[in-house]
Amino acid sequence: MPIDQIIHVKDRFQENYHYTLSAEAGQDFAPEFRPYYSPSKMLELGIFEGKYCNDCQDEFPPEWYEKAKLSDTADPSINYFGIKSRQPLDVWQQKGWIIAPDPRGWFQWYCRYYLGRRLPGVDTHQIKRWKAFARHAGQIKANCHPGDIFCRPKQRQALLQWSYDPLI
Question: Which top-rank group of organisms is this from (predicted)?
């Protein structure tokens, strides 16, 4: 998608939101933000039980969904590690984890950031949250034998959903 393109959002959560792309897709990330996977790869591997951003596919490139594992209902078997991995959105809202203008949370922010949207205050906050999530990788390294990818599957699924390598 070209820089300066305006993306108009019309989905279940946002009907009149729009944003402008100010970076090339997948480029010009903040130096401290080094996600392991693209949103497309995450969707292909299996995240959020196949039930995330299903009604907002028009906002993102169609190729992101060519191999995506999606479902009309939450299906834990779709997840890479085959387990339930998410809390209801209202839990995220109650805990203050939803940051405007992304009513679905971190992954929606990441998809928009990956496309090229830049919102300095929001980006700084979300990147800080992403960096803090690395502690789960440390727990896996401290408690699992190398190569045992079935040790701590919930944490591994969570790492994938935050674009960290869950197969450490």
Answer: Bacteria
What's the whole-model pTM score? Answer: 0.94
Separation CA 52–CA 140 (nearest Å): 26
Q: How do the domains of the chain map onto residue ranges?
A: 6-161
- At 121, give phi and psi (nearest 5°): -65, -45
Which residues 6+ apart lie within 8 Å of 106 measured at CB?
97, 126, 129, 130, 162
Chain center to CA of 140: 20
- Confidence (pLDDT) at 42: 97
Burial of 142 (C-beta count, 10 Å sphere; 0-12/13-18/19+): exposed
Residues 6+ apart with CB under 8 A from 56: 9, 11, 12, 13, 108
